[in-house]
Amino acid sequence: MAEASTSAAAVPSAEEILALLEAHGGKIDDTRALWTKPSGGEPAGEDEKAVEEYFRSRANWQLALQGVLNSLTSREMITYKVQDEISFVPSGEGRSIAKLGSQEARLWSALPADSEQGKSADDLKTALGADTLKIGQGKAFAKKWVRKHPSQPNFLARVPGVDAITDETANDLKQVQEKGTLSDNAKITELRKRKLIIQRKLVYFSIAKGPKFSLKVEKLETDLTVEMLQSGSWKSAAFKQYNFNAEGAPPTSGALHPLLKVREEFRNIFFEMGFTEMPTNRFVESEFWCFDSLFVPQQHAARDVQDTFFVKDPPRAKAIPEDYLARVAEVHEKGGYGSTGYRYPFSRQVTERLVLRTHTTAVSSAMLYAIAQQPGGFKPAKLFSIDRVFRNEAVDATHLAEFHQVEGVVADYNITLGDLIGFMQIFFSKMGVTDLRFKPAYNPYTEPSLEIFSYHKGLKKWVEIGNSGMFRPEMLRPMGLPEGVNVLGWGLSLERPTMIRYGINNIRELVGHKVSIEGVERAAAVRFP
């Protein structure tokens, strides 16, 4: 079979488009009618490469045509609107199914008509192929066309009473071939999920006469020359209009990543509220600072390898304050400060293990301990940090193994849950978030704990935006903080508000190798209202 020709059709010139407009009464509703199909027509059969080239040729033709239309539009000779049409075409496998039938139908047809008889999986694999058998078996089981033979192991048979079938998959694919779509969106979704059809978006244009329409395209002067001024020819010359919408050449300069812009805005909010930034340069922490000092039990699920990255070398932390470690171990084992503790033998070996910090609260813990040890006694403090944390999580559209945590901590005498809620309202109002709700939650190191929700007008529902709570006495008193001193804290991710601010749906487009450099350069400055 000769390969279909997919050579590109010629794009009409500016004067040809004007003549066509005149011939069509001043309006062309669909420029697809101007496209001449290649001599071989649309490719058929299994040549997926030829099909791709065919549709690429159509798209490139419309793109080249738009360049001509833009030129005529700048002269006000025409106006045009961009239109688009979504259609579907079968993939290579889809075209094969439309021709031969679906895998499930072919499997059913390969089985004996008598449902009491069957055929071995090995024979079916030889007759149909391993892939066809695997896919067909799953689909045919789901449709209750085929069953495992009740008495013969590794045999398949037809389901009793199923004497005829309708191969809807093949019929749907034939309809897609003919009409480019289906009326049932659920079927479209299923065929796309099975990669049996491919979505096509074709851009085309509707054209109309403009205020300066003419059948002839005059040459426009671009410069006013000395000779024109001397001869006076400028009076009758036609000049090209200025395009005030044209962008200048982009400056050669660096650009801040959107995360850094939002991070800086968060820092400004904290500074306005009188907070001091904590040092967060230690990505590797001991389990003591990351978990034990926060009153997280050593058997907690967050400390499993499924959630935490453990450091192999060096294997152990070196400097942990011995007196503080002893007090932390005692409160874990025996309790204290109104708590019964966790009642388990505290492991020195576990507390010295090194991990990539799972939260910046490890930094907050170290800072609160330092405040408790400072000469002259306790002084109230407001602290914040914004830096990277690491979780052993599967990467998907909304989760990364490495992300940023925004955290605020306030330590003072006799502050309460009401103060925490008040701080939350002030903090989030500076981000433009005023409609808040609080829901009781559980954290090992805070009690009471609150999840923070905000009403998302776009999604029309309440979404979680942060976590907060009052640090437990079992965490604070072993540090040396005096009775009456309470500490409130809250945290949220940096990535989520950045994605909302810039309209990014997939976190991998914000961080990682899929980040658009052009998008970073064009990202607007951020100012929370």
TrEMBL record:
Q: Spell out the subcellular localization from the entry.
A: Cytoplasm
E.C. code: 6.1.1.20
Alphabetical GO biological process terms: phenylalanyl-tRNA aminoacylation
Give the stretches traversing the membrane: none
Q: Name one GO molecular function term.
A: phenylalanine-tRNA ligase activity
Note whether Magnesium occurs among the keywords: yes
The UniProt entry, under SUPFAM superfamilies, shows: Class II aaRS and biotin synthetases
The record ties this protein, via InterPro entries, to:
aa-tRNA-synth_II (IPR006195), aa-tRNA-synth_II/BPL/LPL (IPR045864), Phe-tRNA-synth_IIc_asu (IPR004529), Phenylalanyl-tRNA_Synthase (IPR002319), PheRS_DBD3 (IPR040725)
Residue ranges of domain Aminoacyl-transfer RNA synthetases class-II family profile in the record: 261-529
Q: Which residues form the signal peptide?
A: none
Enzyme class, UniProt record, top EC level: ligase
Q: Which UniProt keywords apply?
A: Aminoacyl-tRNA synthetase, ATP-binding, Cytoplasm, Ligase, Magnesium, Metal-binding, Nucleotide-binding, Protein biosynthesis
Reading the lineage from the top rank, the first entry is: Eukaryota
Question: Which Gene Ontology cellular-component terms appear in the entry?
Answer: cytosol; phenylalanine-tRNA ligase complex
Give the record's family classification.
Belongs to the class-II aminoacyl-tRNA synthetase family. Phe-tRNA synthetase alpha subunit type 2 subfamily.
Indicate what this protein is called per its UniProt record: phenylalanine--tRNA ligase
Q: Which organism is it from?
A: Acaromyces ingoldii
